[in-house]
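Example 3.2
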Amino acid sequence: MILLDCGNSQVKAQFHDSGRLGASFSCSYIGDWCAQLRHWMQGLTARQCFFSSVLDSARQAQLDACLARQFDTAVTRFTSQAQALGITNGYLEPARLGDDRWMALLAAAGIVDGDCLVIDAGSAITLDLLRADGRHLGGTILPGFNTSNDDFKRIFSHIDFDHAAIAQKDSPGCSTEAAIHIDYDHHSTETLPALVNRWTEIFTGEADVLLAGGDAFRVQRLLERRARIVPDLVFRGILRLAWA
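Structure, written as tokens:
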């Protein structure tokens, strides 16, 4: 089977055969990225595709056409739900939690037994809090380390950055507006460790920290605590759902 993680800046893919990772692929959304993906898939024996996506409608339409051509109807898109695999989505409108964040939470629950912070550091940095009992407490969304505020706003062009909830940062956000944290006075290299230190106090004991994304190693160096890098976190969440 083929797994796809369609993020803000890249599409990443894995081919699994008999329960083992057989091949992987990634490319940015520059040029004919669908042709590159299609060329990679054509050499494989996969009959099913499972994916999560945060693509805009135009790119999503391109991807849908590409997958239909390759797999016909044997395509399953996993999206954020109110509950799955013992995890309860903390968003007031569960469907609005980024599908990649939901996959990462499902993966985290299969990796750690206790409380957990999940950080995915790419063009946007997301931080989510997950209790040991499976309750998601919300989180935050920051500009990536190499993402300007203007580019960050373009990624979230569907959000009103004048929304009152964006200014409220006393606790993890349970909506996209409440989660967005764009600090014009401080860079994310300062903001992220401060939030981690503040929000780990929400948990009664020591929480595990799981890191993913292209800047995971940079986050690991910034944090003043142990943190485990799990680069395929979103894929692990997709796999858990595919096997459920």
